[in-house]
Amino acid sequence: MTSHTTHSDPIILEMRSITKEFPGVKALDRVSLRVKAGEVHAICGENGAGKSTLMKVLSGVYPHGTYNGDIVYQNEVQQFKDIRASEHAGIAIIHQELALIPELSIMENIFLGNEPTKRGVINWDEARSRSIELLARVGLRENPDTPIKEIGVGKQQLVEIAKALNKSVKILILDEPTAALNESDSQHLLDLILGLKGKGITSIIISHKLNEIEQIADSITIIRDGKTIETLDVKADGVDEDRIIKGMVGRTLESRFPEHEPKIGDVLFEVKNWTVGHPQIEDRLVCKGSNFHVRSGEIVGFAGLMGAGRTELARSIFGRSYGRFISGHLYKEGKEITLKSVRQAIDAGLGYVTEDRKSLGLNLLDDIKTTTVSANLEKISKRSVVDDNQEFAVAEDYRKSLRTKTPSVEEGVAKLSGGNQQKVVLAKWMFTDPDLLILDEPTRGIDVGAKYEIYGIIQQLANQGKGIIVISSELPELLGLSDRIYTIFEGAITGVLNKEEASQESLMKLMTSARKAA
Amino acid sequence: MNALKKLFGGNTRQFGMIFALVALIIFFQVATGGNTLTSGNVINLFNGNSYILILAIGMVLVIIAGHIDLSVGSVAAVVGVSVAMAMRDWGIPWYAGVLLGLALGALIGMWQGFWTAYVGIPAFIVTLAGMLLFRGLNQFIGKSNTIPVPRDFQYLGSGYLPEVGPDTGFNNLTLLLGLAGVAFVIFSAVRSRSHAKAIGAHVPEAWVVITKLVLVCGAILFATYLFATGRPGTSFPIPGLILALLVLIYGFVSSKTIVGRHVYAVGGNRHAAELSGVQSKKINFLVMMNMSVLAGLAGMIFVGRSTASGPFDGVGWELDAIAAVFIGGAAVTGGVGTVIGSIVGGLVMAVLNNGLQLLGIGADLTQIIKGLVLLIAVAFDVYNKSQGKKSIIGLMMKNFGRNNEIKPDETTRTKDVIHREA
Description:
Number of domains of chain A: 4
Strand content of chain B: under 5%
Number of helices of chain A: 18
CATH architecture of the largest domain in chain A: 3-Layer(aba) Sandwich
Number of helices of chain B: 18
Strand order of the largest sheet of chain B: 1-2
CATH class of the largest domain in chain A: Alpha Beta
Low-confidence stretches of chain B: 1-11, 388-422
Oligomer: heterodimer
């Protein structure tokens, strides 16, 4: 690529050969991105492909110097040292998790950090008139004095955009803007993006909803495993959903999984009509009448995009530890069971390895041995007194059997690598001897070698006749590990595929739309 | 007993505090020309601080669970005045008074626990309200008067072990108590060691154990000598006896039992604890309730010592107790702390107080020094954590700790062993 730069060049942004490494992981490997002025440019890829990392590099979250490669913006190489610098240049990012302050009003949020002043005092009159203007531009009919917490997520998204427009933005980056929105809010947002395009604002949009991308994008860059795969011109190349999916998943499965002969028995656990409401929002459902079953010795995968309701389903089953239970029945070995607390769920033989190891799975102050026994203290206690020596022996056993790399089981779990932390969490649940073990993103943030070991552990547990549920955003992982895969979309199970009939394409189709409702 | 290990160790700040305590004692011993380690002074020190130390025991559990209790002084006062009134006006005997006080403490604790655990109001607010509420209740019940308590009740706060048996020149019961303590420490260390060996768990090196035993037993025997040779009529004080008993019980409960583990788990990561089957509300309720029971006990001991209940009993106690806990190694964010550490922290403050007093330094300077000590003790720890290294004292103490690096076992295949598990 030559760096010819003339003023007629339609390329507003070029990211050249961006490489970003985290300890032990190469998140981006010579990624390139060319965005034309005034277009809507979509970035597609599976979870973990590196999309968000790339956008964080662009917006200065990862400052200049922490990555290799160049960002050329408006014909100049940029060295953003923080978000303020990129915003100042006219690049605004709207994150998946909105950065608004719920207690403040729409107006205060729009001008937060950018307050119009007159002799050092905030000029609220100007702020108000400008925010009315901005709200009109994004099509939001709300009083600027309304607190953010009183408007819905869809409208909050619009406030974020208004906030960006206020900073005279040239490139608007939207990370999964419609993930939390309903159909009509999504449509409104997409229309707004097109409207802004008409006014010369370039948008970069990251989305899993391929139908939306098909609808609004002019070009699509596909990223896979931290590398740029291709850039498609939507009109010229006649791109459709299937074409995008092919680009996103088109990798050959290497032998990343241990050999495994499943020994599947009778139905061990069954869920019928499972319906659960959102914990805070009155009439939003996170699980909509889900039905599924797990046989003993079977590894059942759950595929779905982030926010589809996979974790919510798992946690609501695990002793109603999430959401408002509305209706549904659980059966274990044919008998109905009621699990109202985590304790009951554990006693009934369920185990749940959480998605977020650090905030939900581990007490980072604890050492390995304390963590290992923490879900089943009764087993090493006599009359409620914990036997320290037995605790040590148990932890030592698991350390050896799972090959956890640590100098001692008295080491704090905070000091372990992700893979070894996950082994400790697995040991904790193996020690409760569950019949059904739910694993939520069991290999997130874990390097390839440790993944292989963890797959081996999961398979061995299945061989012992336990039922295993694996929730994962990595389709190759589900395909390699599962005997059967359910797909979830917006809280509803949209299909179930056997190992033989499942492919990344067929799964992706079921998890991005409700069309083929089962 | 493995607790011996925890008695000394756990975290580096506790090591540090034990050293600081010893250093302080030596410093004051020299500076006061030998007036610190006299029978009379040591007995005084225990008598005057036992109720704060009892509060620190409850407070450390509250703080480990991630809360705080500001109401302990007021709770102590309201229990004290109620018991004093009951004994004076209804003529109930002292032991009934004690039971009444404990029950009242439990009742108050249930009130605070209910708001904290089940309604979900931060304990800071609940107990701030409690601080006002129960102080007011104390003055309402006692009509802001001083209410004297009977002689046998005073024994609780100012009594000593009686003289029995032949005249040995020592207080025999104190002597027996000290010897029993030494025997217990040695016995449990030996038993724990053999048990650990039997089940193949990790066994600390012999010299480490012996060194610790010699140090601990030496300290116990020296204290015994001081307490047993006081001026006639004095010996090991009753509040000290109650304190020792409580330290043993709570030290055991917090480190050895399921409930104790759960308190640490809730404070360390409430969500993770809940998802491991811990009933966090119940735990929060229990620690808050327990705190008020101990506050009630502390109030009664204080009333016994000062021979009467008054409207300003227990003012500022919560701060002394909280300071003791934080100096003793607890973390503001919860999940960290030990009972024995808090006692050491409380003793550091007590020795500081006492030593400065002996040196004739005024209350003004004493407070300034105590404030700085609290700040520096915690700052030291925060700094070390942020630097990701151990404290200087921790490094010096390295050889006293466990030093057996276990090499990762590379030979066992995951598969093989899970077969074994099955």
